[in-house]
Protein backbone atom coordinates (compact mmCIF):
# COMPACT_ATOMS: atom_id res chain seq x y z
CA UNK A 1 0.00 0.00 0.00
CA UNK A 2 2.20 2.77 -1.22
CA UNK A 3 -0.61 5.16 -2.14
CA UNK A 4 -2.88 5.06 0.89
CA UNK A 5 -5.33 7.93 0.79
CA UNK A 6 -7.23 8.19 4.08
CA UNK A 7 -9.74 10.75 2.82
CA UNK A 8 -10.97 8.70 -0.14
CA UNK A 9 -10.91 5.51 1.97
CA UNK A 10 -13.00 7.19 4.67
CA UNK A 11 -15.45 8.65 2.17
CA UNK A 12 -15.76 5.30 0.39
CA UNK A 13 -16.39 3.51 3.68
CA UNK A 14 -19.00 6.09 4.66
CA UNK A 15 -20.75 5.68 1.32
CA UNK A 16 -20.79 1.89 1.64
CA UNK A 17 -22.12 2.11 5.21
CA UNK A 18 -24.74 4.69 4.29
CA UNK A 19 -25.94 2.69 1.29
CA UNK A 20 -26.21 -0.50 3.37
CA UNK A 21 -28.13 1.38 6.08
CA UNK A 22 -30.46 2.99 3.55
CA UNK A 23 -31.05 -0.34 1.83
CA UNK A 24 -32.06 -1.86 5.18
CA UNK A 25 -34.21 1.11 6.20
CA UNK A 26 -35.98 1.54 2.87
CA UNK A 27 -36.31 -2.11 1.82
CA UNK A 28 -35.98 -4.08 5.04
CA UNK A 29 -33.28 -6.16 3.39
CA UNK A 30 -29.61 -6.77 4.07
CA UNK A 31 -27.16 -5.81 1.31
CA UNK A 32 -25.21 -9.07 1.36
CA UNK A 33 -24.11 -9.88 -2.17
CA UNK A 34 -24.18 -13.68 -1.80
CA UNK A 35 -27.72 -13.56 -0.43
CA UNK A 36 -28.91 -11.23 -3.18
CA UNK A 37 -27.27 -13.30 -5.91
CA UNK A 38 -28.24 -16.64 -4.36
CA UNK A 39 -31.86 -15.53 -3.99
CA UNK A 40 -32.02 -14.58 -7.64
CA UNK A 41 -32.51 -18.16 -8.81
CA UNK A 42 -35.71 -18.83 -6.91
CA UNK A 43 -36.91 -15.22 -6.70
CA UNK A 44 -40.56 -14.37 -6.98
CA UNK A 45 -41.61 -11.87 -9.61
CA UNK A 46 -41.80 -9.08 -7.02
CA UNK A 47 -38.31 -9.94 -5.72
CA UNK A 48 -36.65 -10.24 -9.11
CA UNK A 49 -36.55 -6.53 -9.99
CA UNK A 50 -34.67 -5.18 -7.01
CA UNK A 51 -32.20 -8.08 -7.08
CA UNK A 52 -31.41 -7.50 -10.77
CA UNK A 53 -31.18 -3.73 -10.21
CA UNK A 54 -28.77 -4.18 -7.29
CA UNK A 55 -26.51 -6.61 -9.17
CA UNK A 56 -26.65 -4.52 -12.36
CA UNK A 57 -25.48 -1.52 -10.36
CA UNK A 58 -22.43 -3.47 -9.21
CA UNK A 59 -21.48 -4.16 -12.82
CA UNK A 60 -22.53 -0.85 -14.37
CA UNK A 61 -21.12 1.57 -11.76
CA UNK A 62 -17.46 1.19 -12.78
CA UNK A 63 -18.42 1.31 -16.46
CA UNK A 64 -20.31 4.57 -15.94
CA UNK A 65 -17.47 5.93 -13.82
CA UNK A 66 -14.92 5.32 -16.58
CA UNK A 67 -17.31 6.63 -19.26
CA UNK A 68 -17.49 9.89 -17.29
CA UNK A 69 -13.69 10.18 -17.29
CA UNK A 70 -12.74 8.37 -14.11
CA UNK A 71 -9.85 5.95 -14.03
CA UNK A 72 -9.86 2.62 -12.27
CA UNK A 73 -6.75 1.20 -10.63
CA UNK A 74 -4.98 -1.50 -12.61
CA UNK A 75 -5.77 -5.07 -11.67
CA UNK A 76 -3.08 -7.71 -11.80
CA UNK A 77 -3.61 -11.32 -10.84
CA UNK A 78 -0.31 -13.03 -10.22
CA UNK A 79 -1.60 -16.53 -9.68
CA UNK A 80 -2.36 -19.51 -11.92
CA UNK A 81 -5.93 -19.74 -13.21
CA UNK A 82 -6.50 -23.07 -11.44
CA UNK A 83 -5.56 -21.52 -8.11
CA UNK A 84 -7.92 -18.57 -8.71
CA UNK A 85 -10.78 -20.95 -9.57
CA UNK A 86 -10.07 -23.01 -6.45
CA UNK A 87 -9.95 -19.87 -4.30
CA UNK A 88 -13.27 -18.70 -5.76
CA UNK A 89 -14.90 -22.05 -5.03
CA UNK A 90 -13.58 -21.99 -1.46
CA UNK A 91 -14.91 -18.46 -0.94
CA UNK A 92 -18.29 -19.52 -2.31
CA UNK A 93 -18.33 -22.58 -0.07
CA UNK A 94 -17.36 -20.44 2.93
CA UNK A 95 -20.09 -17.90 2.18
CA UNK A 96 -22.63 -20.71 1.99
CA UNK A 97 -21.31 -22.35 5.16
CA UNK A 98 -21.24 -19.03 7.03
CA UNK A 99 -24.76 -18.10 5.84
CA UNK A 100 -23.44 -14.95 4.23
CA UNK A 101 -20.48 -13.27 2.62
CA UNK A 102 -18.02 -10.68 3.83
CA UNK A 103 -20.22 -7.81 2.67
CA UNK A 104 -23.28 -9.17 4.43
CA UNK A 105 -21.53 -10.01 7.67
CA UNK A 106 -18.71 -7.47 7.68
CA UNK A 107 -20.61 -4.39 6.58
CA UNK A 108 -24.25 -5.03 7.40
CA UNK A 109 -24.03 -7.54 10.25
CA UNK A 110 -21.40 -5.65 12.24
CA UNK A 111 -23.39 -2.45 11.83
CA UNK A 112 -26.43 -4.19 13.31
CA UNK A 113 -24.40 -5.71 16.15
CA UNK A 114 -25.16 -9.27 15.05
CA UNK A 115 -23.23 -11.77 17.17
CA UNK A 116 -23.23 -14.26 14.30
CA UNK A 117 -21.71 -11.60 12.03
CA UNK A 118 -19.09 -10.66 14.61
CA UNK A 119 -18.03 -14.32 14.80
CA UNK A 120 -18.12 -14.77 11.00
CA UNK A 121 -16.09 -11.60 10.39
CA UNK A 122 -13.53 -12.74 12.97
CA UNK A 123 -13.19 -16.05 11.13
CA UNK A 124 -12.91 -14.24 7.75
CA UNK A 125 -10.15 -11.98 9.07
CA UNK A 126 -8.25 -14.78 10.82
CA UNK A 127 -8.38 -16.89 7.67
CA UNK A 128 -7.18 -13.99 5.52
CA UNK A 129 -4.31 -13.23 7.88
CA UNK A 130 -3.31 -16.90 8.00
CA UNK A 131 -3.52 -17.19 4.21
CA UNK A 132 -1.25 -14.18 3.69
CA UNK A 133 1.18 -15.46 6.32
CA UNK A 134 1.44 -18.85 4.63
CA UNK A 135 1.48 -17.76 0.98
CA UNK A 136 3.58 -14.60 1.24
CA UNK A 137 5.89 -15.26 4.14
CA UNK A 138 6.26 -19.00 4.71
CA UNK A 139 6.07 -20.13 1.07
CA UNK A 140 8.01 -17.14 -0.20
CA UNK A 141 5.33 -15.92 -2.63
Automatic annotation (TrEMBL):
Record family assignment: Belongs to the TsuA/YedE (TC 9.B.102) family.
Naturally occurring in which organism (per UniProt): Methylorubrum extorquens (strain DSM 6343 / CIP 106787 / DM4)
Keyword annotations from UniProtKB, A to Z: Cell inner membrane, Cell membrane, Membrane, Transmembrane, Transmembrane helix, Transport
Name of the protein in its database record: Uncharacterized protein
Main location per the UniProt record: membrane
Cellular compartments annotated: Cell inner membrane
Membrane-topology annotation of the record: Multi-pass membrane protein
GO cellular component terms, semicolon-separated: plasma membrane
Transmembrane segments: 48-68, 80-97, 118-139
